[in-house]
Amino acid sequence: MSFVQLLQKVGTMDRRWIFLAIFVATVIPFFFPLGLEVKLTDEVKNIYDFIEQMDEHSQPILLSFDYAPDVAAECHPMALALLRHLFSRDIKVVAVALHQAAPALALDAFTTVAKEYNKKYGEDYAFMGFGAGFAYMMAKMGESFPDSFPADYYGTPIGEIPLARKIQNYSSVAMVITLSGSRSYEYYITFAQAKSGVKVAAGMTAVMASDAYPFLQSGQLVGLMGGLKAAAEYEQLVGHRDRAFIGMDAQSITHILIVFFIILGNVSYFLTKRMEKR
Fold first, then answer.
1. How far is the C-alpha of 143 from the C-alpha of 271, rounded, in Å?
2. In this predicted model, what pLDDT tens digit does every residue of 183-235 receive, in sequence order?
3. The domain that contains 199 carries what CATH number?
């Protein structure tokens, strides 16, 4: 069989072979990571730079877990990378969850990273649990954080948590970072940035990121992480390549393979048409 005949055969190939090739290409990086470099963007580096100028004596970061498991593939690597950066600089973190499915994700992130950096609950970080109502809770935290979260996720009164009891409202934190699959950052801009003047940064799914750029350009957002690529950028900045880099490797290989099959299919189609005219 000649090369031309082989190309013609591609057009009639069982599509299940293509599905199998895509599956293999997606799975390989999870076992053999390629570590492909990602290009850094200013909006991601702005968050990194803000945290870099902080130290152990700075006010804590308020980290808001506002995403569900359906977008965890994009948002959870951001949470892990952020916590690694914050804990590596001994910066205190107080976290809340404004999505009902987020507490389990927040606990997973803290359990994983706190163990890596030997951080102590209550002194280095605290998790206040779930607060119902995005806008309501964001407005209430600006008035009184203790009234918003009188106890933490485990039921411990806020007055018994050394780190959390220092926070009265948004003026008590250096920055609010929200990780979400929705437009929750707009509420933080309204209730935290506009009213209290606190810096706000956001991490979100790639499909939501385009809507957030006007807020970034106006200065209402200090920084922005959009999708898995942004999470990989932050992992690269922190120097700890993890889930996002593996995901980007899988995406890159899969995209290249899809383009290859598109080109091959078109070549096969035009060769077949040309042979039919003879």
1. 70
2. 889 999 999 998 888 999 999 998 888 899 999 999 999 999 998 888 889 98
3. 3.40.50
Number of domains in the chain: 2
Alpha-helical runs (H) found in 219-242: 227-238
**99 and 228 share one domain:** yes
- CB-neighbour burial class of residue 251 (10 A; exposed 0-12, middle 13-18, buried 19+): middle
Share of the chain above pLDDT 70, in %: 94
The span from the CA of 66 to the CA of 20, in Å, is 35
In a domain, 245, yes or no: no
- CA-CA distance, 70 to 66, in Å (whole number)? 12
Alpha-carbon Rg for the chain in angstroms: 23
In this structure, are 105 and 184 located in the same domain? yes
Say how many residues make up the chain: 278
**Alpha carbons within 13 A on the beta-carbon side of 111:** 6
Q: Tell me how far CA of residue 137 lies from CA of 51, 95, 140, 198, 268, in angstroms.
A: 25, 13, 5, 16, 59
Between CA 170 and CA 172 the distance in angstroms is 5
Note the pTM of the prediction, 2 decimals: 0.83
Residue owning tokens 């007055």: 159
